[in-house]
Amino acid sequence: LCKKKLLVENDIKKALEIQKTRGGKLSDILVGMGVVSRNDLVSALSEELGIPPIDLSRYKISPDVVSLISKKVAKNYHVVPVSKMGDFLTVATADPLNIFAIDDLAHLTGCKISVVIASDKEIDEAIAECYEAGAHEEIEKIIDGIKGPGNIEVLEEGKESVSSEQLIKLVQEAPVVKISNMLLAEGVKLRASDILIEPLEGGLRVRYRIDGVLREAQRLPKRIHPALVSRLKVMSNLNIAERRLPQDG
């Protein structure tokens, strides 16, 4: 990093001092100091070792490939299986010099291991997405359990005259509370800076902005839009009866 003039020697010294007092990974400390980005770290390591980098946020991993490495092993070695071609299994890691992990993965999978480099953060997010039942699955279960208007009240499209009492009743329905809480919790887990809930022709699109990039997370039925928006307004101390003007909360 110093050779590429991404860091100066003084930055390294400061980071080492922080590491001595607080602990933690040197790479995380440097990123936290704002002197280098995670992408710069991955790029420098890739160039130094001659190992290709990968952007996991733009890569869709097949469930068949994920099944080759257990969740316990993936978390233990901090790796994510990416693709399989013939006898070769490509694995993303932030520590490509961990020969023990690579040898053990080859033994456990019966494959020859090919390594690509990704940032710690991307690997954490990929493990969560691939192995852990996130908000997507749980919300789908809740929606499947909504049999009809008796379970969740739906406002008619374009209806302007809605009483505050009706809206309050709407946002207190258990499914709406659970869905809104899960969407927010998922955003926190993914370290999203923004959550966009957009009504489209075929339903609601939920997107998270992560490191400046919008990533689609889920599609929801359009009929829950009024209830979901009203619930979020209540949580933000906004006027739930105001449907025309933008509000800050």
Automatic annotation (TrEMBL):
GO CC terms of this entry: plasma membrane
The protein's name: Type II secretion system protein GspE N-terminal domain-containing protein
GO molecular function annotation: ATP binding; ATP hydrolysis activity
InterPro entries: P-loop_NTPase, T2SS/T4SS_dom, T2SS_E_N_sf, T2SS_GspE_N
Keyword Ubl conjugation: no
Keywords, sorted A to Z: ATP-binding, Nucleotide-binding
Domain (Bacterial type II secretion system protein E) ranges: 172-249
Residue intervals of the Type II secretion system protein GspE N-terminal domain: 49-134
Keyword set includes ATP-binding: yes
Phylogenetic classification of the source organism: unclassified sequences, metagenomes, ecological metagenomes
